[in-house]
């Protein structure tokens, strides 16, 4: 048993406060929408995040019609300011949060040579897939702590490439797939960086690769023939959530198996450098005095 799991056990394994909702980013299609249905069926109040008002409303209506409880939350996570505001709004409206699933993401894209940027001018995949989850997780730490036994689950990928600290914005020899795998490496490293500290608050933090090339818009837009289904990915995510309820923290799952992420994602020096770089990039969205991981 890891140190994370021992601390989680001591805090009261599986005792998530009834009524503490779950926030799922990117919940208007694909894996996020499927997970929203599954969690609502389990009795969770689901906070449905999306960037399109009508699609958000459609998912909320679908969940309510099926007997669930849901509310819409709009934000464009290509803006770190909007990611921070989403966190502040959720924290203001919900004193506790039982689960945060950082699912929203941008894939490799159809044209691997086309380097896109976020609204803040950062490389798009790094911004949406990594920086936005960092900002949102920071903003929601207080309501997660208040739940008593909450979880943060980062939707990662088996594809992981170390971030180049001298070219974080990937301005040289750009490749869309590598930009994607760099962002997922960073997300895994973030998971392991905060897991020990967040365990002190009774918050379990894990990362899961749900399935390879699911039948999602992200995959089809990249011109890839799907290898697996959203249903398979949903089962893997639910397994990771159940593992968190049982006390697992600081872990990486490949589908429904505990696995190992890229070896450098665990390295203290890698985590230190990435934390420092990240703090500089997200500083404009944070309160005075710097960030606290």
Automatic annotation (TrEMBL):
<feature type="compositionally biased region" description="Basic and acidic residues">
    <location>
        <begin position="1"/>
        <end position="10"/>
    </location>
</feature>
<dbReference type="InterPro" id="IPR036291">
    <property type="entry name" value="NAD(P)-bd_dom_sf"/>
</dbReference>
<feature type="region of interest" description="Disordered">
    <location>
        <begin position="1"/>
        <end position="26"/>
    </location>
</feature>
<dbReference type="Pfam" id="PF00106">
    <property type="entry name" value="adh_short"/>
</dbReference>
<dbReference type="InterPro" id="IPR002347">
    <property type="entry name" value="SDR_fam"/>
</dbReference>
<protein>
    <submittedName>
        <fullName>SDR family NAD(P)-dependent oxidoreductase</fullName>
    </submittedName>
</protein>
<dbReference type="GO" id="GO:0016491">
    <property type="term" value="F:oxidoreductase activity"/>
</dbReference>
<keyword id="KW-0560">Oxidoreductase</keyword>
<comment type="similarity">
    <text>Belongs to the short-chain dehydrogenases/reductases (SDR) family.</text>
</comment>
